[in-house]
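Example 9 (inverse folding). The structure is encoded as follows.
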């Protein structure tokens, strides 16, 4: 499979790369995508993936997938595997597959180099003491009493830290930079901490000494020969530390860190801590719940890699913080599925219709195109029988002229079939319409009825041949555009949309949908785009609504 083409949209990062190629600073571009395997990837990660892999493709370079696995107690192999799957599903191939833990030995040796150069020291301060000594944005920090420890003692202690002789929290290795630096990140940051008893998903129990992200990341980049290390804006203040580390140790090159703004999306959350809570506390069915902003959730919902890549290209890459409207993402999937999803008929709220002048044993096989514009998608056969279902919403006893559906004593066209006229609505004891008695006009198949106009067209299925199905209708997971805004912590459950999932269990589908495989997408005419959920079985079909045909939220928001 070839990798996707990106539209060569320029941005400030590509301009930097263009210059670096023009000046001969680099001949080949190498980027990396560095997820921490402590959760599933989300649509924000997709922005970073499309940026890093897209640049690699457009500049005929390459991109590595590197797991930043320095924080083993929150990480696991399930997350590693899901990340690999999601990057591949988005259509990208990595050059090297690495783990930061592949470099633990080298990182350790660079730390000894720092100690020997007097650039790092073993500190006995507790976490609280370190915090208290760090100072604030307006006040300088104070130096640790252990800062001037002799090199030999530092080396000995650091080796004992590695050998497991020292307890968790008893000591750290810290960079020796500048406690008075206006940049708090340069105030002798911790480089290594002791963690006994964790089983690392890659290195098992080999290490009880773990390097910090800010130390690991620049060295991993340099060891792989990354040319441009692209990360989100919160690392801007860490860049001086990134550069400091690379300047002190004998790495083969000095990659350039460039920051861009994170993607924020309305009506959802993107922090892995918040997403983890939604999963762990059962507010959603799992990481791949179709309401989640995860790649796995979007895939299950029916999003395509093309639509997600299109979205990431449309939002662009800048340094400006912004929040993107959900409608943009929805627009991308509508666009993609409009071109590619075969049309089918499905009745979500069935109302029985008896066509009285249609023989009881007759089955008329009608041919219906799978796409109104794309003939290459072919057609399917739709059976018409005496009893059919239409949607409850497509019938009114009385209605204004604007209502272009079926009205008592009025006419409507059945999509791909004939014009019918309703002359009786049968009600149950509660006054609810339970059946319509109609007749059809045999002269109206593919032809206008003689002497009158029938404006409305509705979808339908044969009652005798329809397949019953469950259809899951999804809405936004949150009712607030910025869930949790103005509140502390990771709990966003108060802002959850109670109606984010509505399950319809008595839907009726046209029989050609019977063979549809998991993940296949269709347009249910007049309803929206739907795909087959992994829960679906031949006995019990289950469809997810990916998106409605039009942006219903735009109307709701205008009204407010
Ligand atoms: P969180 O802060 O929720 O834990 P993270 O940024 O730590 O997320 P990582 O797994 O470390 O998640 O991210 C891997 C890469 O994806 C990083 O380079 C990060 O900058 C990028 N990334 C994460 N979230 C976003 C986002 N919302 N928009 C753009 N890039 C993102
Ligand atoms: Mg991170």
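The amino acid assigned to each position is listed next.
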């Amino acid at each position: 499979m070839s990798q996707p083409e990106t539209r060569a949209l320029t941005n400030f990062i590509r301009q930097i790369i263009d210059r670096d190629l023009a000046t001969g600073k680099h001949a080949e571009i190498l980027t990396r995508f560095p997820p921490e395997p402590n959760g599933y990837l989300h649509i924000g990660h997709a922005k970073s993936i499309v940026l890093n892999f897209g640049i690699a493709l457009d500049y005929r370079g390459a991109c590595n997938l590197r797991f930043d696995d320095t924080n083993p107690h929150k990480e696991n192999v399930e997350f590693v595997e899901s990340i690999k799957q999601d990057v591949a599903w988005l259509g990208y191939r990595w050059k090297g597959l690495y783990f930061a833990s592949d470099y633990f030995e080298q990182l350790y040796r660079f730390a000894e180099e720092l100690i020997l150069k007097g650039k790092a020291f073993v500190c006995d301060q507790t976490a609280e003491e370190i915090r208290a000594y760090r100072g604030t944005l307006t006040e300088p920090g104070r130096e640790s009493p252990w800062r001037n420890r002799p090199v030999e003692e530092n080396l000995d202690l650091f080796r004992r830290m590695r050998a497991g002789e020292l307890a968790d929290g008893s000591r750290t290795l810290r960079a020796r930079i500048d406690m008075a630096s206006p940049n708090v990140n340069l105030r002798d940051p911790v480089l290594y901490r002791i963690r006994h008893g964790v089983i690392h998903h890659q290195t098992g129990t080999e290490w009880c000494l773990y390097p910090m992200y800010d130390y690991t990341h620049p060295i991993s980049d340099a060891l792989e020969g990354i040319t441009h290390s692209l990360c989100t804006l919160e690392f801007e203040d860490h860049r001086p530390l990134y550069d400091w580390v690379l300047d002190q140790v004998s790495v083969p090159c000095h990659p350039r860190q460039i920051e861009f703004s994170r993607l924020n999306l309305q009506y959802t959350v993107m922090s892995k801590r918040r997403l983890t809570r939604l999963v762990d506390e059962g507010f959603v069915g799992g990481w791949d719940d179709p309401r989640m902003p995860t790649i796995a959730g979007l895939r299950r919902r029916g999003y395509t890699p093309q639509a997600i890549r299109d979205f990431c290209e449309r939002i662009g890459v800048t340094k400006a913080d912004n929040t993107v409207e959900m409608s943009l993402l929805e627009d991308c999937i509508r666009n993609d599925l409009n071109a590619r999803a075969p049309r089918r008929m499905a009745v979500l709220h069935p109302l029985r219709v008896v066509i009285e002048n249609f023989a009881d044993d007759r089955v008329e096989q009608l041919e219906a195109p799978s796409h109104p514009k794309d003939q290459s998608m072919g057609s399917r056969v739709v059976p018409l029988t005496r009893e059919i279902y239409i949607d409850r919403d497509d019938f009114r006893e009385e209605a204004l002229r604007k209502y272009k559906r079926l009205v008592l004593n009025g006419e409507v066209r059945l999509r791909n079939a004939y014009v019918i006229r309703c002359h009786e609505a049968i009600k149950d004891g509660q006054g609810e319409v339970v059946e319509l008695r109609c007749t059809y006009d045999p002269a109206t198949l593919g032809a206008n009825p003689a002497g009158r106009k029938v404006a409305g067209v509705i979808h339908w299925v044969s009652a005798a041949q329809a397949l019953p199905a469950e259809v899951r209708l999804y809405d936004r997971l949150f009712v607030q555009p910025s869930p949790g805004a103005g509140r502390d912590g990771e709990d966003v459950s108060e802002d959850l949309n109670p109606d984010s999932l509505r399950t319809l269990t008595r839907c009726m589908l046209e029989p050609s949908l019977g063979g549809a495989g998991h993940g296949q997408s269709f347009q249910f005419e007049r309803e929206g785009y739907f795909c087959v959920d992994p829960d679906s079985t031949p006995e019990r079909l289950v469809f997810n609504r990916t998106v409605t045909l039009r942006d219903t939220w735009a109307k709701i928001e205008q009204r407010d």
